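Long-time lurker, first post. I've been practising inverse folding by hand and with some scripts of my own, and I keep getting stuck on stretches where the structure tokens seem ambiguous. Below is the full token string for one chain I'm working on. Before anyone asks, I'm not after the true native sequence, just a reasonable design that respects the backbone. If someone could post their per-position residues I'd love to compare against what I wrote down in my notebook.
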């Protein structure tokens, strides 16, 4: 993955999910990518905490203002709950 590329992390809450999903780890990886995005002049999540200590946002709360984005939904193991947020984010990013 190219760090300057637009990335949208769509993660699901644990309710109804497979046990192998690691939402906290996915969030940590997204936060850890932030310094590279900032270095390249792109907007990250806006979270400057140490990725090991960064607190995940509440479920159904999006951090969608940057080229690096995050949202976790409570709909279980499916994508449709995040689709409207992803389309809105991607449309904005593709329109740059």
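-- Answer (accepted) --
I ran through it position by position. Result:
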């Amino acid at each position: 993955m190219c760090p300057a590329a637009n990335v949208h992390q769509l993660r699901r809450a644990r309710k109804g999910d497979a046990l192998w999903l690691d939402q906290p780890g996915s969030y940590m990886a997204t936060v850890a990518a932030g310094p590279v995005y900032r270095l390249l002049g792109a907007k990250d999540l806006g979270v400057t905490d140490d990725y090991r200590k960064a607190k995940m946002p509440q479920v159904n709360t999006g951090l969608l203002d940057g080229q690096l984005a995050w949202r976790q939904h409570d709909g279980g193991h499916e994508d449709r709950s995040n689709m409207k947020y992803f389309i809105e984010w991607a449309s904005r990013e593709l329109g740059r």
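A couple of notes from the structure itself: Residues 7-94 form one domain. Helices lie at 23-39, 80-94. Happy to go over any region you disagree with.
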